[in-house]
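Lecture notes, unit on binding sites. The following record was shown on slide 14. It pairs a sequence with acetyl coenzyme *A.
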Amino acid sequence: MKFLSTGSFVPPRRMTNQDFEKIVDTSDQWIVERTGIHARHVAEEETTLTMAMAAAKQAMEGVDPSAICLVLVATFTPDQATPSVASQLQQALGLPEEVLAYDINAACSGFLFALLTAERLLEAMPGKCALLVGAEKVSGRLDYTDRGTCILFGDGAGAAVVQADGRPTWADYGNRSNGSAIYTDEKGLLRMEGRQVYQFAVRTVTQSIRNVLEKAGLEPGQLDHVVCHQANHRIIEAVARHLGAPMELFFENLGEYGNTSAASIPLALDEMHRNGMLKSGQRVLLEGFGSGLSWGSYLFEW
Ligand code: ACO
């Protein structure tokens, strides 16, 4: 799978841990020690659609719109139930009517699942490309009196244009239905059993990475980059330790953006791409995990 381009957007409004000290009984020290998060960006007038649009427009720069046959938007926070964000993007970006456009809701695993879906569909559409977007306005789903949850999340969007190029890729993924670990309540607000999710994340992510490495016949040290869903520094650190892999392999920008759910992996990829960190032929492992519970690993060459 070839990434032709990337894009991203975060709202300018930045909320620091000090801002949260004024809202809930917490401290900068607690948040940094438990999560590694220092700040997150929070939508004001921005919507999931406008953030998705901004990221998608960047990713579409220099791309021939007629090459796009598929638009997938990963989100669990669409502005409305229907029409889908993807369908609205198709029209706003002037993409052909023949594109297949729909949203995918797999929470923090959403972008990874969109990528896996695109890979399968593009096999049947040689030469064609997919526009993949992860966009979330999680702030609209937060209870700002629940200190165990509200300090973790941020808003934003990331996008990529991908094309199947016949090179081998390796994947591992799954779902373990557990509606009480992360869910939205009767008011539509996000609730989470933090410790349960933490333990799931460390165990399952580590095993999923081992599975995908075994399929590819590689050791952790032979990877160039691991881009995990940006949920918590301690989760990434524990995964690295269990794998016996150096922390330098693991990209992190959660300190600035918090957990942006489905947007976190494409946001990270766009930052890495723009910083020149991603070089042709490098082995990149993407790892998504979250509500469902769901998870997925995807190994490919940049
Ligand atoms: N500030 C200060 N104290 C707090 C805060 C806060 N913001 N939040 C919780 N506490 C308190 C708790 O009340 C508790 O106090 P008590 O001991 O008096 O009862 C204490 O801190 C410890 O609470 P825990 O929940 O056990 O803390 P933990 O070390 O597990 O850290 C955290 C909590 C950061 C949420 C962690 O469990 C975590 O990161 N979990 C994973 C979350 C995640 O990755 N989610 C990703 C998926 S999200 C999705 O898919 C949409």
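Take-home: The pocket of acetyl coenzyme *A is lined by residues 26, 30-31, 34-35, 107-108, 147-148, 151, 182, 194-195, 197-198, 201, 231-232, 235, 259, 261, 290-291 (CB under 6 Å).
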